[in-house]
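Both lines are retained for reference:
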Amino acid sequence: MILRRLYLYLVSAAALAVLAIGLVLLGGTILLFVFNDPTADSSRGQLAIYTAMTIVALPVWGAHFWFAHRFASRDPFERASALRRLYLYWACLAGGLATTGAVVAAVVQLVQPALDNVPFNALTTSQIGWAAIVFAAVWGLHFVIAWRDRAAVGEEGASATLRRWYMYIALLVGLLMLLGGAASLLQAGWTNLAAGDRRFPVSLAGPFGLAAGGLLLWAVHARVIHVRFVAEDRHSTLRALEGFIAVAISIATALIGAAQILYYLVARVLGVSNPGGAGGDFIAAAAGPGSALLVYGVAWFLLNRRLQRDAGTQEADRQAAIRRLYTNLAALISLAAWGSGASLLLGTLAQQAEAPIIGARAQDWRDPVSLAVTLTLVGAGVWLAHWRHEPWAADRQSLSRRLYVWAALLGSVLAVLGGGVGIVNAVLRQAFSAQPRLDDPSNLEFGQFLGVVVVALALAIYHWRVLRSDAASRPARPARVAATTTKVAEPAPAQAPTAVVVESLGPHGRRYTLVVTDATDDDVHQALSNLPPHATYHLTPTEQTVDGR
């Protein structure tokens, strides 16, 4: 049965891919002749290949999927099988993503004349539109079949997991496309407005199409999840994982945007004329980071609210776990930001102090100090808002906190390793040189790597102490004490006496002496089979004779 399913759905998947690609390319080639394109005559050979792909793949896919659907209609177990759902949701995901890509390209072609003053290309738009129709048909057919299967036989276990993989991957991709397109569109509009009469070749159609395609993909799947699956999916790990990936990307992008804007401001205060190569127009230079801060900052806020809302519908332990994971995720990302800024700041100051000692000329300190200060301030602000050195006991022993501490410790040690290699390399490069020079500007790398080592070492020591402190606060494990059971053969009274002697062994452990009569060894083992995993017992039968028997 499983081999039959595997055969039918593997062939169906392969034939479906060939069929969809063949139809898209065949339709695009036919449109060359419809629009009398000059390249139409040279495409006759390609027309034969694409026609052959379509003619061969269509009956192969149709026959195998018809048999698979027929078996599924007769047998509910076949209809609910994981292999069938795997094929259906693979087709939905592939078809949905391909449709989104085609929609993005089609929207770009449609809005280019209005937004970018690019002539409208009817042939290209028609070819992309045909591709969107084919891919949308593939997605729609398999989505409807999967929907009917769920209504007929339900969906649980592996089948529900496969459905979540498909939907939340599509939801995440659509959201990231929407955010990226919206940020790029805002940046392009901001730049064009700031430029005034000085026009920059910034395209509006590209980001508009990306945002439109992402919005379509995200909105369709978000609506389906909200209407049909939100109650059961709020408890799923994949929904939380999708949310935390989106939150992590939003936090990192928003922090980078905020730090870059603050960097421009600090650099201007310090007198840097061209901070980061942004030029003299601060308003135009702030278009990129400002757009990222606005779009991803709003996404950060909304996604965090969604995580809190999901947690509010679950049991207390899961609510706390989601809160801890978000808190430690934000702390880890902000730690990387302010650690990098502190390393850059200390390294720049060390270079300025080293330069007069060795007689070398250091680069201007104002630009790197501006960047370092902004990274440190922004990252440290977010880190202090989320990090607690000694939180509640449950938070202190949580998995997400241990992941944060170990990740911070790992990153710090690797930074110490890399910085140490850089320091030794800066020293040995002159030692091994044929003509060593103390005033060589490359020797200033010593100061830069020294800053990395000092900051990383301080972070490693701090988080090692946190790790030790958390371990010391962990409650001791209860002692494992054997429960001894003794069997004594006695005449059966009207009511079998059972004597239990309890000896106190501390707050977490007890030892029981249990006397059981008129039971076999198997009966005793079966009765004690529900003991907790940490409990043990030892059965010692005692044979006695009663009345000379």
In short: The CA atoms of residues 521 and 527 lie 10 Å apart. Residues 316-358 form the longest helix (43 residues).
